[in-house]
């Protein structure tokens, strides 16, 4: 007689002991904490912290994430073929910034640096693959991990975590350590690039300043040569032409003088530039004085400031040349003001004999007025002229920027 089949017996999983359950919860908590630390380290890196601050935060957070008493960042010194303790946590005084270890393949850190492979040594007292650095022995280190700090360029060095306690670093721990090293490595590479870029910009600015300085000196030399020629020639017309040429060269020289003294070679403070040039014109004028009033803080592009002041030079030169044929005490007044937020106004006025009958600034064939018209068009400005009785007045309204 056949027997009825046995009923399936339920499978009962063995329940974890309280100790095992506590260990599992602790391990899970540690992994979560490690992920939080990697995120925190990433934020610090993205915020653009300085290199020293970033290194110190990395050793602090890494030690926290691995519950280790010691951590250090070793910077590779290629010429010495050594690793310098650049930043650290837990070490005795005189270690960070001073202590060095070998970077050869027999060193755990050196092996990680040269091969790019992580190194775990859970029992340094029994380690046979590598020699144990004296620094670790002196501090009673029982176990250690090393991973490379690699950016896009040459490796910076090694990130190492060390502990006196018994136990084992796991693969999960090396994954966390390598993650921290990767974040730091990218931040270091970014800092390297920014440093190289800043150095390149600083060099470019230095070269521009040197160029402007040399140009200014060269133009000053030309002005001096013209002045010497003026002293030799007694013909009034030739003297005037040479003086006008010297004034134009001097105006450009003043611009380059301001450029090499300024931190920003792209813009000039227009009021100061105009005052300098008018002072030069005043010194070169024997018939009248040149007075200038200029508003402060008008900063415009260098390629607009130079034609603007050259235009002013021509207007002042014309006034000095034509307004006082029979006088020696004339006065030419130059003013620079703002009109709203977007425009500036240049006024050049004299108290001389006034404009000749039928004067047409647009039709005049004199070199000075042709230059005035050219600079007015270049600036996108509007020029108006009126008789003052006595004297005349030229008013130029120009936009601050070329696109207005």
List the helices and strands and how they pair.
Blueprint (H helix, E strand, L loop, with lengths): L17 H29 L4 H15 L4 E8 L4 E8 L10 E3 L5 H8 L3 E3 L12 H5 L4 E7 L7 E7 L7 H62 L3 H26 L5 E3 H15 L3 E7 L4 E3 H21 L7 E10 L3 E8 L16 H13 L2 E6 L4 E8 L5
Parallel strand pairs: 8-10
Antiparallel strand pairs: 1-2, 1-6, 2-3, 4-5, 5-6, 7-9, 10-11, 11-13, 12-13
Walkthrough of the structure:
By secondary structure, the protein is α+β, with helices and mostly antiparallel strands. It folds into 2 domains: 19-195, 2-Layer Sandwich (Beta-Lactamase); 266-404, Heat Shock Protein 90 (2-Layer Sandwich). 48% of the residues lie in helices and 20% in strands. It contains 9 helices and 13 strands. It has helices spanning 18-46, 51-65, 108-115, 134-138, 171-232, 236-261, 270-284, 302-322, 367-379; strands spanning 70-77, 82-89, 100-102, 119-121, 143-149, 157-163, 267-269, 288-294, 299-301, 330-339, 343-350, 382-387, 392-399. The strands form 3 sheets. It has a 6-stranded antiparallel β-sheet, with helices on both faces. The chain has a 5-stranded mixed β-sheet with strand order 8-10-11-13-12, with helices on one face. Helix 1 (18-46) runs parallel beside helix 5 (171-232), helix 6 packs antiparallel against helix 8 and helix 7 (270-284) packs parallel to helix 8 (302-322). The longest helix is centred in the middle third of the chain and has 62 residues, at 171-232. The protein is rod-shaped and about 115 Å long. The model has no long low-confidence stretch (mean pLDDT 83).
């Amino acid at each position: 007689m056949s027997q009825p089949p046995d009923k399936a017996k339920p499978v009962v999983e063995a329940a974890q002991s309280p100790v095992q359950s506590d260990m599992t919860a602790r391990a899970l908590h540690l992994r979560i904490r490690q992920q939080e630390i990697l995120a925190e380290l990433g934020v610090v890196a993205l915020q653009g912290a300085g290199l020293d601050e970033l290194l110190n935060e990395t050793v602090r957070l890494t030690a926290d994430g691995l519950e280790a008493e010691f951590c250090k960042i070793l910077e590779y010194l290629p010429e010495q073929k050594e690793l310098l303790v650049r930043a650290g946590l837990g070490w005795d005084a005189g270690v960070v910034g001073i202590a060095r270890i070998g970077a050869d393949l027999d060193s755990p850190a050196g092996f990680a640096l040269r091969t790019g492979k992580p190194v775990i040594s859970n029992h340094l007292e029994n380690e046979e693959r590598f020699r144990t650095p004296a620094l670790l022995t002196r501090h009673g280190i029982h176990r250690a991990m090393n991973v490379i700090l690699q950016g896009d360029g040459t490796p910076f060095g090694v990130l190492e975590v060390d502990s006196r306690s018994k136990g084992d670093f796991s693969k999960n721990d090396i994954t966390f350590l390598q993650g921290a090293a990767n974040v730091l490595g990218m931040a270091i590479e970014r800092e390297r690039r920014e440093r190289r870029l800043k150095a390149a910009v600083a060099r470019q600015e230095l070269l521009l300043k040197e160029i402007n300085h040399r140009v200014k000196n060269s133009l000053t030399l030309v002005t001096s040569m013209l002045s010497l020629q003026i002293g030799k020639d007694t013909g009034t017309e030739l003297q005037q032409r040479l003086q006008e040429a010297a004034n134009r060269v001097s105006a450009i020289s003043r611009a380059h003088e301001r450029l090499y003294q300024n931190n920003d070679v792209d813009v000039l403070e227009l009021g100061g530039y105009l005052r300098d040039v008018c002072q030069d014109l005043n010194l070169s004028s024997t018939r009248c004085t040149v007075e200038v009033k200029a508003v402060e803080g008008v900063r415009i592009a260098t390629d607009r400031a130079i034609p603007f002041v050259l235009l002013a030079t021509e207007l002042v030169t014309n006034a000095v040349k034509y307004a006082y044929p029979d006088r020696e005490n004339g006065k030419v007044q130059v003013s620079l003001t703002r009109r709203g937020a977007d425009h500036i106004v240049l006024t050049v006025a004299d108290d001389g004999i006034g404009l000749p009958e039928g004067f047409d600034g647009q039709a005049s064939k004199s070199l000075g007025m042709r230059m005035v018209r050219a600079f007015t068009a270049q600036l996108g400005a509007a020029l108006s002229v009126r008789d003052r009785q006595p004297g005349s007045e030229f008013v130029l309204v120009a936009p601050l920027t070329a696109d207005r």
